[in-house]
Design a protein that fits this description.
about 270 residues, alpha/beta, Cobalt-precorrin-4 Transmethylase, domain 1, Methyltransferase, Cobalt-precorrin-4 Transmethylase, Domain 2, 3 domains, five-stranded parallel β-sheet, five-stranded mixed β-sheet, 11 helices
Length: about 270
């Protein structure tokens, strides 16, 4: 016997329709209605598993206006499940608005384990250590991408991107980190044409030179020589703010316990 909750967060398959748990199917059949991003997409899943539960739209454009509706339904004793089009809600999908309100109003919330593109991808990509930084969908502008890559040079950066933008994104990252930067790219995870490539950025760009299709998850491996690049990034940031080289050397040496003269020499060369 499992405990009953008021509100269920239910992961759905990211590609292969069979990647859903028995418990998820049971919950979706037993609750009063399902909140979903696109009712048409969710209905295909429900039809496949003969689930008759009513669907109600809940997406990023109506999240806030749905809050009162959900609260009133729960107060009347209804049970609700939240799903996204694919994967786990709240992981770059709607849900962040309603969950705090449910907790604040004393309703019980639980999340079922299930499909998620991040874990599906990372569980087949080797890396040194367990640490990584997930940044959601990477920024679109060149300057923002460059800043993100520089800021997280010492970390494995994991992000989502669209097939229309990913090659341009890799080109921008290459301009900051170099063509030999190691990366892993996954597309169409759990689907018929699933592909995960681990190589340097130049080879990835060559591999996909004729275009790329499918949902994208990417990881840029950490730079093992990132300490100096991190200092360089901080120097450039302070220079952009109008600080002089001598001032920068004093500030950074005080904050990060780095030799003041070393920072000063680096600043002169930037």
């Amino acid at each position: 016997m499992t405990r009953e909750f008021d509100f269920y967060i239910v992961p759905t398959p990211i590609g292969n329709i069979q990647d859903i748990t028995f418990r998820a199917i049971e919950i979706l059949k037993s609750i009063d209605f399902i909140a979903c991003e696109d009712t048409r997409i969710t209905q295909k899943l429900l039809n496949h598993y003969d689930i008759k539960t009513k669907c109600v739209s809940y997406h990023k454009y109506n999240e806030r206006e749905r809050v009162e509706f959900f609260l009133n339904e729960l107060k009347s004793g209804k049970k609700i499940a939240l799903v996204s089009d694919a994967g786990t809600p709240l992981i770059c999908d709607p849900g962040a608005v309603i969950i705090p309100e449910l907790i604040k109003n004393g309703f019980t919330v639980t999340s079922l384990p299930g499909a998620c593109a991040i874990t599906t991808f990372l569980s087949q990509v080797p890396r040194n250590g367990e640490d990584f930084t997930f940044i959601g969908f990477i920024h679109r502008t060149e300057g923002q991408i460059q800043e993100t890559v520089q800021k997280h040079a010492g970390e494995n950066i994991v992000f989502y991107d669209s097939p229309e933008r990913i090659l341009k994104t890799l080109e921008i990252i290459k301009s900051v980190r170099g063509s030999e930067t190691k990366a892993a790219l996954g597309r169409e995870l759990s689907k018929l044409f699933e592909e995960v490539i681990i190589d340097n950025i130049d080879n990835l760009l060559e591999h996909f030179k004729d275009g790329i299709k499918g949902e994208i998850v990417c990881m840029i491996y950490k730079d093992n020589n990132s300490a100096d690049k991190d200092i360089e990034y901080k120097i450039k940031t302070l220079k952009d703010k109008g600080f002089k080289d001598k001032e920068i050397s004093i500030i950074l040496s005080s904050l990060y316990n780095v030799n003041k003269n070393q920072i000063y020499k680096m600043a002169l060369n930037l």
